[in-house]
Design brief:
Layout (H helix, E strand, L loop, with lengths): L28 E2 L5 E3 L2 E2 H8 L3 E5 H20 L5 E6 L6 H9 L3 E4 L2 H9 L7 E3 L6 H10 L3 E4 L2 H13 L4 E6 L13 H5 L7 H13 L3 E7 L9 H18 L7 E3 L17 H18 L6 E4 L3 H4 L3 E17 L2 E10 L8 H5 L5 E3 L8 E7 L8 E9 L7 E4 L21 E5 L2 E6 L4 H6 L2 H7 L1
Parallel strand pairs: 4-19, 5-6, 5-12, 6-7, 7-8, 8-9, 9-10, 10-11, 11-12, 14-16
Antiparallel strand pairs: 1-2, 2-3, 4-13, 13-14, 13-18, 15-18, 16-17, 19-20
Helix pairs in contact: 2-10, 5-6, 8-9, 9-10
The protein binds pyridoxal-5'-phosphate (PLP).
Pyridoxal-5'-phosphate binds next to helix 11.
């Protein structure tokens, strides 16, 4: 029976053991005992070997997702006779293994700091496949990007054009640059009002971009190669993407020259399912719609279609990852709401906002299942919470799990591959969990977990005390 404390979108499942398709890594299933396995590896084996909390990536799923996006962009662009590039958004999750997988699938990398750039390059990415973003790149970072041979730097503010020109001329090199345009499009609703999104830190207005193109063209060491737009993340509707594309084509019309190669980078932001209520559009269809729209807009203006680029992160890394936690404490909490009384079962796990900040940051919703076993008990409404000292330390805000969920169970939380490890912290002096890949029945450690010693070692007060 539905619990009055449950959000409207969540109904009690017929089977609280079932894995909703589209939410979990492609290879995740229950084995004959009812426990979960992923990549052919039993969750129990992963927990025994690496402990919990543990980030687990289905390697084949991540690679297939990257290849699918690249294939969709290439095919859609080829229909209009232009090239289509995909830059994987490293901020969603990057590590040496991921760099090799993404590079192998033919994608480039969007990097936003010297750190992400360093991982990409050390992981074997071709610098010519990197594009460097960010609203406050330091001179050092720009110099590092140039000396590494990063293909494109995306200028976020007029002051940056001068900064890049100064550094490029000091090392006598030419640097390809794009300009990030703030189209004013509101990311995920019908609300396209320009004013709705003008008041934020990324990019410049279309008018400023047009003026900046002239400045760049007059700069001795900069080559203008295109315009960039990214309207936000976790977007489900096509309308925002199409409206942004319309505005970018208008800007392209203002700045294009017949003799100059030009790329329109339309960013990332394709939404994924975190719960059964999320119904994202198939990404290939979304890309087709955007590319065809750009082509139609260009035709209407009598212009050739530019080369196109996209910059997705979450759609590639998100659903390929799960986090495993051990349940430590369960506690029914009685809640009085008006004249109603209802109970929610709080399920405390051994991680929390230090390994997944998204619920606390954005009120993000997630889905969970008992991973270590199946249960025939009727589902009850639970809130999966972490072990940190914040009441907002929520892992899964609302979910139905079998009523016998108990200490010692292992829980799997879906779609944690993007923006979880990359946003992790040491809050309450906990180490970041390890990250492993599973494929073909074996597991590989991708990133070692931080031990307490690792965390304490940086504290100079403690090491002084030991001298
Ligand atoms: C400039 C830029 N490009 C691409 C992305 C990737 O977005 P997503 O992971 O939602 O595809 C982001 C995310 O914040 C971004 O800021």
């Amino acid at each position: 029976m539905s619990n009055p404390l449950a959000p409207e979108w969540l109904s009690p499942p017929v089977d609280a053991n079932a894995l909703h398709s589209g939410l979990w890594p492609a290879s995740m299933r229950r084995d004959s005992s009812g426990a979960l396995e992923v990549g052919g590896v039993a969750v129990a084996d992963l927990v025994q070997r690496y402990g919990t909390p543990l980030y687990v990536f289905d390697q084949d799923d991540l690679v297939a997702r990257a290849a699918h996006v690249q294939g969709a962009v290439t095919a859609a662009c080829a229909r209009h006779g232009v090239t289509g590039s995909v830059y994987y958004a490293s901020k969603s999750f990057i590590s040496g293994h991921v760099v090799a997988w993404i590079e192998g699938a033919g994608l480039g990398f969007d990097v936003a700091t010297a750190g992400e750039m360093a991982v990409a390059i050390a992981g074997g990415a071709n610098a010519d496949h990197l594009e460097f973003q960010g609203n406050n790149k330091s001179e050092d970072e720009i110099a590092q990007a140039m000396s590494a041979g990063v293909a494109t730097i995306v200028i976020d503010a007029p002051i940056e054009a001068a900064r890049i020109q100064k550094i490029a001329s000091s090392v006598d090199t030419r640097q390809k640059v794009m300009i990030r345009v703030n189209t004013g499009v509101h990311a995920d609703t019908h609300d396209y009002l320009a004013t709705a999104r003008e008041d934020q830190k990324f990019g410049v207005s279309p008018e400023e971009a047009i003026a900046l193109v002239s400045t760049i063209r007059e700069s001795s060491h900069l080559d203008f190669v295109g315009l960039h737009s990214h309207i936000g993340s976790q977007i489900f509707r096509t309308e925002g993407f199409l409206e942004a594309a319309t505005r970018m084509v208008e800007a392209y019309q203002q700045v294009r020259r017949d003799d100059e190669p030009f790329t329109l980078n339309l960013g990332g932001g394709f939404g994924i399912a975190y719960t059964e209520a999320d119904q994202p559009m198939e990404v290939g269809e979304l890309i087709d719609a955007i590319v065809d729209h750009v082509a139609a807009q260009c035709a209407a203006h009598g212009m050739p279609v530019p080369n196109l680029a996209f910059e997705p992160g979450r759609i590639i890394s998100g659903p390929a990852g799960v986090t495993l936690y051990s349940v430590g404490v369960t506690k029914p909490v009685t809640v009085h709401e008006g004249d109603q009384v209802a109970t929610r079962l709080y399920v405390s796990v051994d991680g929390g906002m230090s390994d997944n900040a998204r619920p606390a940051l954005y009120g993000a919703n997630y889905s969970a299942r008992i991973a270590s076993r199946e249960s025939g008990e009727s589902p009850v409404l639970v809130r999966v919470v972490g072990k940190h000292c914040e009441s907002g330390d929520i892992v899964v805000n609302a979910e139905y799990l079998p009523g016998d969920v108990a200490p010692g169970d292992v829980l799997a939380v879906a779609a944690t591959g993007a923006y979880c490890y990359s946003l992790a912290s040491n809050y309450n002096v906990v180490g970041r969990p390890p990250v492993v890949a599973v494929s073909g029945g074996s597991s590989t450690l991708m990133v070692a977990g931080e031990t307490l010693d690792d965390v304490l070692a940086r504290d100079q007060g403690l090491s002084r005390g030991q001298e």
